[in-house]
Amino acid sequence: MRYGFTTGSCAAAAAKAAAYMLLTGKQKTEITIETPKGIPYTAQIQDIHRKEQEVSCAVEKDGGDDPDITTGALIYAKVSYGKQKDRKQVYGTIIETRGESQFPQIVIDGGKGVGRVTKPGLDQPVGNAAINHVPREMITREVQQVCSITDYKGCLQVEIFVPEGEKLAEHTFNPRLGIVGGISILGTSGIVEPMSSQAIVDTIKVELNQRKAQGFDYVAVSPGNYGLDFIKKTYGYDLDRSVKCSNFIGETIDMAVEMGFQKMLLTGHIGKLIKVAGGIMNTHSGEGDCRMELLAAFSIKHGVEVEHIQRILECVTTEEAVRILEESGRLREVMNYAMKRICYYLNKRAKGKMQIDCILYANEFGELAKSKEAAEWFTLLAQEQGR
Question: Given the DSSP bridges, would you call strands 366-370 and 355-362 parallel, antiparallel or unpaired?
Fold first, then answer.
C-alpha cells in the first residue's frame, strides 16, 4: 500500500521552496526534503506568488492509501525577511542555530486556517499556533539548509496557512482540544502509514494529557459520541472534557495509569462493552467478536430458558439480544453479572493502580447496569460543572 505525507512534511516542503525562491530569486516547482522517518519527500510546488520581500507557495497534502480529512488540502508557506527578535516578543517558535545571532533566525507562526492553542496540556503552549514541535523542527532544518546554501545569516519569518483549514477543523478533534481557528500541523515521522491506528492512539494520549495538565486526577471515557450523548440525555451532564477512546479501551487504561490518573469512568453501549466482559480490550470487530456467545453464557448462568438462549445466539445486534432478555424476565440479573465481569477485566488491566467504574446502556432500554461506585461520579461531575 502507498504511504502518504503529513501536513508537517507539506509545510516543511512549502517553506523550503519559498525560502529558496526568496533568497535566490529563482523559480522552484519541485523540492525534496528529508522526513524524520528517513524517507525523502519530493513535493510539487503550486500557486507560487513572488514579491521582493516575500514568497508564498503551496504543497497539496497527499494521505496515500490512508487519506484523512486534510488529504487534497493546500498547505501554504509564506517566507519573508524579518528583523532579529527576542523570543518573548512573538508568538511562534524561534530557533537559532547554536543560539548565536550570526546564524539564521527562523520565526515560525501560523496564519489563516491554522489553529491557535487556547488550553494547556498540548504539544504547544497556550497562544502558539498549533504547529507541533516535530513539524517546527522540520521547517527550521529545511529553511536553514537553504540559508546555508545562500550564505544568508539574517532572520526569516515563516507563516504556515491553510485556506480551507477552519472548515476542515470542524471534522477533527481540534474543537474538543481547545484549538481554534483551523487545523493542526502534525506528524512525528513525516509520513502517513496506511491503515495505521497509531494516529487514533496518539489523539487519545493528547486528550488524556490535556486533562491531566488541567489538574484532574479522574477522567470520563467513552468509545464515541453515543456514550457522551447518553450521559447528557440521561443524567444531564455534558462531558465536554471527556476522552473518546474509540476501540482502544486497554491502551487508554494503560496510558491513564501511566499518567497518574486515580479514577476512570467508562460509559459505553453494550455492543462494545460486552466484549470487555470476555477480556477483549480492543473492541474492533476485526480483533474479535463474542458478543452473543457471552450473552448466551451469562444467560445460562442465570437460568434463562433454552428457547431464549437459542434466539440470542442467532441475533445480529446486541439490541435484539437485550430485547429477548427483557422478554425472558432476566435482563437485570444478566446485565448486572455482565457489569461485574466488565469491571473485573477493566480493573485487572489497571493492575490496582486506578479505580475504574462503568455504565452500560442500550439505545432502546437506556441504562442497563452500572458499577457500585459509578453513582459517586455524578457528585464529581456536578462539582466540576459548578452545580
Answer: antiparallel
Encode pLDDT of 339-359 as tens digits: 999 999 999 999 999 999 999
Question: Do 238 and 130 sit in the same domain of this protein?
Answer: no
**Whole-angstrom Cα distance, residue 385 to residue 225?**
19
With cell 539548509, the residue in question is 145
Which of 184, 188, 151 minimizes the C-alpha distance to 169? 184
Taking the CA atoms of 208, 210, 211 and 213 in sequence, report the sign of the dihedral they define.
positive
Amino acid at 378: F
Name every residue whose Cβ is closer than 8 Å to that of residue 369 and which is 6 or more positions away in sequence.
Answer: 332, 335, 336, 338, 339, 359, 360
Cell of 279: 477480556
Whichever domain contains 65, its CATH number is 3.30.2110.10
Q: What tens digit of pLDDT does each residue of 226-266 get?
A: 777 787 787 777 666 688 898 999 999 999 999 999 999 99
Determine, yes or no, domain membership for 13. Answer: yes
Q: Which of 187, 93, 99 is nearest to 140 (CA)?
A: 93
Handedness of CA 112, 115, 118, 120 (dihedral sign): negative
Task: Write the Ramachandran bin of 190: left for phi over 0, alpha for psi from -120 to 50, otherwise beta.
Answer: left
Lookup result for grid cell 442465570: 302
- The set of cell numbers assigned to 302 is 442465570
- On whether residue 201 sits in a domain, the answer given is no
Q: Which structural domain, as residue segments, surrounds residue 46?
A: 4-192
Q: What pLDDT score does 106 carry? A: 96
Considering the domain architecture, whether residues 231 and 287 belong to the same structural domain is answered as yes
